[in-house]
Every structure is written in C-alpha cells, then in structure tokens.
C-alpha cells in the first residue's frame, strides 16, 4: 500500500506540474503525454536522475535500431517496440526533471544530441533491414542518403543558432556599435514543412511497416518526405540568415 500511495502522489505531482499550454499534437496530448505521466513515478521510485533517464532511453533506442536492422521479423518487432519505448521516454526525462526541479542545459544538450543521432540512424537501420531481406544494395545508399540529409539539416540549424546567439552576446558586450540590433529579427520561424511531419510519419508508419513487412515502401516514403523537408528546412534557414545574421562585425584579423 505504501508503494501505491507514493505512486499516486508522484503521479499527481508530475501531471499537475506540466503546462498544458505546450502539450503538442493530438497524439502527444492524448497518448504519449498521459502514458508518460503513468510511468514517470516508476523512474522516480527508482531514484533515477533526468539525465540517467535520457542516457537509458538512448541505449534502448540504439538496441531497437540494431534489432530492426537485423532483417529478422521477430527481432524487428522487438526492435520496433524498443524504439517506441525510447520515444516515450523522451517525455519521461522531462517529467522527472520538472518533478525534481532539475532542468539543466546539459540535459537539453544530451536530449537534443541523442534525438539527432536516433533520428538520423533510423533510415540506415531500415536500409540494412531491406538489404538483408532483399539483397539489394541500393537500399543502403538510400538509407545513407536520408541519414546524411537529416544530419546536414541539424548541422545547419545548429550553426544558425550558434551565430544568432553570438550576435546577441556581442551586442551585450558592446562589440556591436552603431547598429540598431533591435531592427533585426533574431528569432527563427519554421516554415510550412514542419519536422513534425517526419516525426508523425515515423510514429504511425514504422510499426505498420515492420508488422506487415513493407519496410521497403516505408523507406521510400521516408526518403521522399526527408528530401522535401531537408530542402525546405535548409533553404528557410539560409533565407532567414540573410536577414537575421546580416550584422556588421569587425574582423579579429583587421588592423
């Protein structure tokens, strides 16, 4: 009874401590978030820190990708289940951080880095599965291409964010003078082709692809969506960088 009482108390703390204003899409609102609230007290009882949960979900996700890549039907089913578990734990680590009031930038860094790796590695995992099933090496090239597009897009996003924050820091330190920085929009506004489209496609399509053994078609669809998203994502960053980063600066090599 003691465990159930503590579980109930922690559940209500976790649920009430989350802002409903940032619940996300409908599947997040009605499936992932409520489920994460239910299992978060278990991690709290295990006395795991938010970063430990993040690292745990990373290894669960990697294990799932390896099993999917095997090409074996049963192992792929287990791999798919682990990948979905990894996705669910992406919500749990944040719940634990809010419960202990220990949200840190290190946690955001780990979370973002692991998300980037797992997202980019999934197409390659599916490509290996298709190769082992069909023997067609073309799938390896397709999967590698998708992974590269994802990584390159994340790289552009990272560089844009880095220089945007550099401008803000230089302005605070007085290194940018005689320039109205207030007239420059340093925010980033995502375009119509949101990355949520890829996320939704993976969430709803991966399980069906593995269950019905249609990984090849799923990979083809992922290739098309990823290409369109990457072109739009990178292009929109360059367009916004033309305005947001077009701030005069003195070169450190200037005499």
Task: Record the SSE blueprint.
Elements: H1 2-16, H2 26-45, H3 50-69, H4 73-100, H5 105-134, H6 138-172, H7 196-211, H8 215-244
Helix pairs in contact: 1-2, 1-4, 2-4, 3-4, 3-5, 4-7, 5-6, 5-8, 6-8, 7-8
Description of the structure:
It is a single chain. The chain is mainly alpha-helical and 255 residues long. It has 2 domains: 1-103, Four Helix Bundle (Hemerythrin (Met), subunit A) (Up-down Bundle), CATH 1.20.120.1760; 135-248, no CATH class. The protein is 76% helix and 0% strand. It contains 8 helices and no strands. Helix 1 crosses helix 2 (26-45), helix 3 packs antiparallel against helix 4 and helix 3 runs parallel beside helix 5. The chain is flat, with a radius of gyration of 21 Å. The protein starts with a helix and ends in an 11-residue tail after the last helix. The relative contact order is 0.10. The mean pLDDT is 87.
Keyword list:
255 residues; mainly alpha; Four Helix Bundle (Hemerythrin (Met), subunit A); 2 domains
Radius of gyration: 21 Å
Envelope shape: flat
How much of the sequence lies in strands comes to under 5%
In round numbers, the mean pLDDT is 87
How much helicity do the residues have? over 70%
Oligomer designation = single chain
Number of strands: 0
Supply the number of structural domains: 2
Low-pLDDT ranges: none
Write a concise synopsis of the structure shown.
The chain has eight helices and no strands. The protein is mainly alpha-helical and 255 residues long.
